[in-house]
Amino acid sequence: MQERLPFRPIRPSKGKGGLTCTSQPARLTTILKLLSLLPICCGVGSIRCSSTAVHDNSTDMISLLDFKRAITNDSRQALRSWHAGVPLCTWKGVVCSSPKHPGRVMELDLHSLSLSGTISPSLGNLTFLRS
Fold first, then answer.
1. First and final CA of the chain: distance in angstroms?
2. Cα torsion for 108, 109, 111, 115, to the nearest 10°?
3. Structural domain of residue 91, as residue ranges?
4. What global pTM score does this model have?
5. Is residue 106 within 8 Å of 96, Cβ to Cβ?
6. What's the total number of domains in the chain?
7. Mean pLDDT estimate for the chain
8. Could you give the dihedral angle defined by the CA atoms of residues 49, 53, 59 and 65, in that order, rounded to the nearest 10 degrees?
9. Within a domain: residue 98?
10. pLDDT 10s digits, 76-123
């Protein structure tokens, strides 16, 4: 059986400037103030500004880049513009034309680009893709 140590309450000690320990109600008040700021801090971190719209289409970009990696033959270099340094909706064959969901991929028009390879299952992540 494990031996129990005697209970000793923690009391604030006095230092040069008075009490060095914060009282329990003051500590609780400080914690509540900090917790109330948490939603504001999280919101500020997720704001993205763009000249076209405020949105997050990073899932669409990752899905299309996965698709590009599965292409084994792009003899016309049709997917040359497909990289993170170029806005997604300006990529060749990518159409983002929905006022309801700006910046999201609605259509892929790749039929005349002479591409070959496998179709990546990540295209299933293009939740607004219609054709």
1. 70
2. -60
3. 58-125
4. 0.56
5. yes
6. 1
7. 76
8. -90
9. yes
10. 999 999 999 999 999 999 999 777 778 899 999 988 888 999 988 989
